[in-house]
Input
Amino acid sequence: MEKENKHYGTIDGLRTIAAFGIVIMHIRANTNYIISGYLYNKVIPSFTNFVFLFMVISAFGMYSGYYEKFLNNKIVLSDFYKKRFKKVLPFFSILVILDVLLFPSVESFYEGFCDLTLMFGFLPKFLSVIGVGWFLGLIFIFYISFPFFVFLLETKKRAWIVFALSLIYNYISYNFFDLGRNNILYSACFFIAGGLIYLYRQKILNYNKNLIFFITVIIIIAYYVFDENVYICLSIACMLLICAILKQGGILENKITKFFSSISLEIYLSHMLIFRVIEKLKLNIILGNGWVQFLLTLTMVICGTTIFSYIVKRIIDYMFKTLEKLKI
Output
């Protein structure tokens, strides 16, 4: 019998690509470099949709770790939720406090308070304090609702019915209620898709690798032809995850991707704060406004964010271990 917590190393590679892709997209969106070309003006902006890949991967990981435990009543809810808070709150709290201190205002204080509760995903608007944190707010709603998601996917038949309903909800929430990806009902189809892939993980191993890869490439091409269709985004995220399950080893599975995957959430949450510091120091314009400066800014942000994320995470881990030893 397969272990519940089986690690798929190639998924580390997907997390790394998604995290860096979003960093690249945000650098482009928050600068005024004069750069032309399809890559800069079409491909890089599309990296914003890597968040959908994060959703599918996050759901798959949650189901891998907790699906069977919830079904078999082998999980203590208080322990489950404590672990969720412990995983994200300490690092995120540091970012929120730094953001409020760097850009103080009454509004930022209010938003900072909401951020620190991790309940801000229930609010009807984006928060400017750690603006990229909307994703964490959405993910935390998924954590809170996870026992219900397990119920919805208890059987494959029910899972497919729920998935179909979630696609309808996605369409209605966007076209009628004007909701976006930060809303749990809009994004539920991505979390359910990750669960479906988990349910079929054994069958997926028997799929033809070359055929799956070919289909994935075709869907990616279709994405650029049909201009960011959300259902194509869903298909790409699912196909990339299926490819990762099928293809163990290779360039996506190594010590480098494992390292960056371990701090991918921290990189996602903190990269804009690092960019703002670089911007304040005017290091983002020292070499003009072309490709050289863009690549230099990107390198500084990635290096700074990686160092910051690694050091802060190590400090937090050390503090938790110390508290456990002292039994506090």
Observations:
- The two ends are 38 Å apart (CA to CA).
- Residues 291-326 form the longest helix (36 residues).
- The chain has 14 helices and no strands.
